[in-house]
Specification:
The protein is an alpha/beta fold. It folds into two domains: 305 residues, ABC transporter transmembrane region fold; 231 residues, Rossmann fold, CATH 3.40.50.300. Helix content is 60%, strand content 12%. It is built from 16 helices and 13 strands. A seven-stranded mixed sheet has the order 6-9-10-3-11-12-13, sandwiched between helices. Strands 2-1-4-5 form a four-stranded antiparallel sheet. Strand 12 and strand 13 form a beta hairpin. The longest helix has 50 residues. The radius of gyration is 34 Å and the shape is elongated. 32% of the residues are buried. This is ABC transporter ATP-binding protein. Pfam families: ABC_tran (PF00005). It is found in: Cell membrane. Keywords: ATP-binding, Coiled coil, Membrane, Nucleotide-binding, Transmembrane, Transmembrane helix. GO terms for molecular function: ABC-type transporter activity; ATP binding; ATP hydrolysis activity; peptide transmembrane transporter activity.
Length: 554
Amino acid sequence: MTLVDLITSEAATERRGLLAAASLAGVANALVILLVNVIVQSNDSSDMRSFAMYVLAIVLFVLGARHTCHRTVHIIESGLHRIKARVVDKIERAELQGIERLGTAEIYDRITENVSVVSDAAAPIALCLQSLCILAFATLYIAWLSPTAFMVIAALTAVGVSIYLSNKKEIKRCLRDAARTRVAFFDLIMDLLDGFKEAKFSRRRSREIAEDIVQTSDSLRVITARANILFGENTIFASCLLFAVLGGIIFILPRYRVIDAPLLSQLVAGVIFVWGPLGMLLNTSQAYIRSNVALAQIMLLEEKLDAATREGAALSDAVDPWTGRFTAIEAMNVEYHYASEPGGGGFHVGPVSLTVTAGEVVFIVGGNGSGKSTFLKVLTGLYPPSAGVLRVDGVLVQPGNVAPYREMISAIFSDFHLFTKLYGLVGVDEASVHRLLGQMQLDGKTSFAQQRFTRRDLSTGQRKRLAMIVALLEDRPICVFDEWAADQDPEFRKYFYEELIPALKRQGKTVIAVSHDDRYFRCADRVVTMEAGKILAIERTAKDSIRTDAGPSA
């Protein structure tokens, strides 16, 4: 998509109005040139009729130019709004693994930096549209004055414009390289901020990260400077082109008696009037090229988001075979393989077989890197199995019904996120929220009003308690907790295992929790031990242990 495509698609119903307004501005501008030349030639500046026509021409120019500018800006902004809404919709429908592979830095850059580039070009493009019409009518005026002079001017201008556009490919290449480098720069900045605590424990690590950021920034400086220098050279060349045209009119045409002195002054005035719109067109080409590159990057993002959306996973068309209730979840020989760079070996989980029944409490344990969190993401439908199947009450979980399956789950992962408000919850009872805040000992830390918590900048453990409140308010049949107790003090750790989980079980809810607290394993119906991406053992609280090599079905 180019900027012209964007304007054309958005202005389908008002193209004629835009063209009429731009033409009005062009005619009015040409009329101003004509009147100025007529008045100068007649030496009668007191003619009120000419003055009235002069004022009328200016008024018509302002009206046409204002309408063209206002509508073009609104058209471009409306188009950008539709693009942003479309991107957000594709993000919302995309699968987790696709978003993880794409990375947040590229998404941020495309819907902020690139959209801003196109938005900033709106006003110059509006002026460019009316400049085209002004240039057309003013050029006709010059041709009417002297066809020979017009041919000479047109030839010089054509040669100049072709030279002006000769570095267009290099400019586009520089802008594309700058876009890629800018994403890499954002990635490094986010890396530093996300790992700020870890960086503070090693001066060498901190310096190396900073050096990478500075080096990437310097690469971005070189690329951006090259593009801007090329744009600057074009602007200088445009001025030289004007001097060449004026020189041809003043020094060459009179020598061959093509024009006389009175006509010479009219042609010079006409060229000077024409050069304003032509200069606007040449200078606007910078914004146009930048906008086209930015739009191309946005379209590329949309293609990647399309690839991140599994076929048939449209939420609105999802079929719910369970209606919010289930008896058993069966993971049958499921595997998940993380994509890796060519020649590398990505992390692999599985094959894993596990059955979880309604109302059961299952703890998943194992060392770091054993595959617990990845298996949870497969079990909850966030990752599609690379092999094997996931069934709920005998129904295969697949793209067409994975959304209603997820709707049965409240999950708090280790990298959880608290939204600014309670999205997705309707009719939340504030009294219930305040009661839960009291139970979580957060009533003195934050409050609840207008569907949101008044404060979220709390400790990790306290934020996890807020996330637990949200999960309890969702009141779903399956609760998934990924090391929820890891950041809690001993008091709340005991509360989680000995009070909260039993209370959820009494309500008939299924609890699947990743845990390292072996002293509380007795609170589970079963403990599933994972190692190297597979189930090593399943142990019931009655201490009857089941061991398997490939992963048992229980």
